[in-house]
Q: What sequence folds into this?
């Protein structure tokens, strides 16, 4: 507590000698706390569940995406914020080739692998929005950016097109084929560059007018495209849950 005394006709306030060291110590503690939180504390995205965090839980999450109801095993999902059930704009998932196995702790390294031979597949069910069918995307979007409309036959059995160097797709190839039902398949694949050492291939397709699926895997596995596509569609179809009651039930425990 401050004390007062008279000195030379002036009133002098004396403060305890321990105040200055205390303020310095508090400053150090506050700075250290800020430093530790900045480097080791959760980010805003983590607090909101918007950072990827795998789960080994097997309960099924009831979600409605693009008007379609699904029961999705939690160990396929990637983001905590999408595990609450209900209506979702999208649900992002992951699995391992060759059999689309869900996440398990003992296979953690395989799910985080980003080498060219990685087995992980990332896929998302989402509201279709303005996504065009494959035929229209090829005609109205991709064609105008192709370096040539004459395809090169790829060793995977797909037709490969290159994009113009001045286009936004310049570091990608377009692979075109048909599935077993004769439907057009469009796959865009990154080229290996100095900035992209482990390129991916991506396919997006409409499942219904309001529901879309997009998935990606390593370009080194492009030769398996037909099998991957069949199993991918089969997997998400297995998540569909027709005939459920109108009221959402949230998560469902096995």
A:
């Amino acid at each position: 507590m401050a004390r007062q005394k008279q000195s030379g006709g002036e009133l002098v306030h004396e403060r305890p000698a321990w105040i200055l060291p205390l303020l310095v110590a508090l400053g150090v503690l506050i700075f250290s706390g800020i430093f530790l939180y900045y480097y080791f504390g959760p980010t805003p995205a983590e607090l909101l569940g918007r950072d990827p965090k795998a789960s080994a839980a097997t309960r099924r999450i009831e979600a409605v995406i693009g008007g379609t109801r699904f029961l999705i095993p939690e160990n396929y999902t990637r983001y905590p914020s999408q595990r609450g059930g209900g209506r979702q704009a999208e649900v992002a998932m992951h699995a391992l080739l060759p059999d689309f196995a869900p996440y398990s702790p003992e296979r953690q390294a395989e799910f985080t692998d980003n080498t060219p031979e990685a087995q992980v597949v990332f896929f998302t069910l989402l509201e279709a929005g303005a996504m065009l069918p494959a035929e229209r995307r090829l005609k109205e979007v991709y064609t105008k950016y192709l370096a040539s409309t004459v395809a090169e036959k790829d060793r995977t059995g797909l037709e490969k097109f290159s994009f113009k160097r001045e286009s936004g797709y310049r570091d990608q190839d377009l692979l075109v084929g048909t599935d077993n039902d004769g439907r057009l398949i469009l796959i865009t694949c990154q080229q290996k560059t100095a900035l992209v050492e482990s390129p991916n291939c991506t396919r997006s397709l409409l499942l219904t007018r309001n529901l879309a699926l997009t998935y990606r895997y390593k370009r080194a596995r492009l030769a398996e495209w037909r099998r991957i596509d069949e199993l991918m569609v089969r997997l998400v179809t297995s998540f569909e849950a027709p005939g459920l009651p109108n009221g959402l039930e949230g998560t469902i425990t096995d």
Remarks:
- Helices lie at 19-40, 44-47, 108-112, 134-142, 225-239.
- The chain has two domains: 3-41, 52-245.
